[in-house]
Amino acid sequence: VDDLPVPQQIRISNITCDSFKISWDIPDSRGRERITHYFIDLNKKENEKENKFKHKEIPTKLVAKAVPLPMTVRGHWFLSPRTEYTVSVQTAAKQPDGDYAVSPWSEIIEFCTADYSAVHLNQLLQKAEAIAGRMLPFTVFYRNQQKEYFQQARFLHCGRLHCPLWLIYVVTPVCRYNFLIEQLTLLPFAFVSAQIQADVLFNQNTNVYFGDFYCMYTSYHYVILVLAPAGSDGDAFCSGRLPALDRANNFFLRCSEESDGSLSFRHAQDVILEVIYTEPVDLSLGTVEKISGQQLLSQSTVNAKKDPSCKICNISVGR
Fold it and tell me: Which residue of 66, 149, 155, 172 is 20 to 30 Å from 257, comparing CA positions?
């Protein structure tokens, strides 16, 4: 560590979903005129209740020339929407041999990135629609998982959207959902399948909203949808924030009324649908059974890391 001055009074401003401006004060010292670069240490803030299956976060160290402040930090490579980060700064002086003399790190401050704007969400929607694929029929929503997973899912409150939603439901191309299972602690077996007829959650009184589109370093792409009973608090919340979809004619999840008055249901083949339902589900309307045979467990993407390099599901914000 050299005698370079330590940045003080770190300030964050102009925060978007994938950028922010940062500035600080440099105290007068004999090393001030030697500063050639700034080192910025940016890390996702750890959550005590992080999903145990999440990808390992890699700290981001940014090197920038000593430009006038405030400095703009921008990049979906290392910034995600509605995510808490910590940041600290060093001053540095590049030496003739190419190495850097550095100051001690500044204080660590915290901030949270902003959510997608309506414009950004519509851009993501258009990208998701382009790869959704053909529609296939289904009649039952279900979720296969460990009993422990369901017990944990009971307490989730939709961290992705920051809205008053009760539960998270997940549907894959074969339509698997999460359910609130109050009585699960009474079940002696480790793996269960929760099932419910599609029309219980999805009918002519349900509104559909688009939430997000992403992947996680795999060839699979995920689309987040929100199902909200018309007129509910969740519906009121989503209607002013998320793009609304036509219940009977969208690219992802459809509910249509047939000529005989019955309902038919279809889902997109080429994306995995992660569906959030805004009300608690009465499991007595469905079934909970022990998994037998070679049934695969459903996936959990809570707190998982999005792939920022994918050209299919990323948009350029503020460019």
Answer: 172
CA distance 298 to 193: 10
Partners of residue 153 on adjacent β-strands: none
CA distance 217 to 139: 31
Rounded Cα distance between 245 and 251, Å, is: 9
Q: Which residue has the tokens 């083949």?
A: 269
Antiparallel, parallel or unpaired: β 272-277 and 221-229: parallel
Look up the pTM and report it. Answer: 0.67
Secondary structure class of 182 (helix, strand, coil): helix
Q: Beta partners for 144? A: 193
What residues does CATH 2.60.40.10 cover in the chain?
Answer: 8-112
How many other β-carbons are positioned within 10 Å of the β-carbon of residue 39? 18
Separation CA 233–CA 156 (nearest Å): 18
Average pLDDT rounded to a whole number, residues 124-141: 90
Token reading at 152: 């944990």
The residue with tokens 């990049």 is 75
Chain Cα centroid distance, residue 21 = 23
Specify the pairing of strand 191-197 against strand 287-290.
antiparallel
| Residues 35 and 90: beta-carbon distance below 8 Å | no
Q: Is a pLDDT exceeding 90 seen at residue 59? A: no
Burial class (CB in 10 A: 0-12, 13-18, 19+), 291: middle
Whether omega for the bond prior to residue 280 falls within 30 degrees of 0, making it cis, is: no
CATH class of 8-112: mainly beta
CA within 13 Å, CB half, 4 = 24
47 pLDDT tier (thresholds 50, 70, 90): low
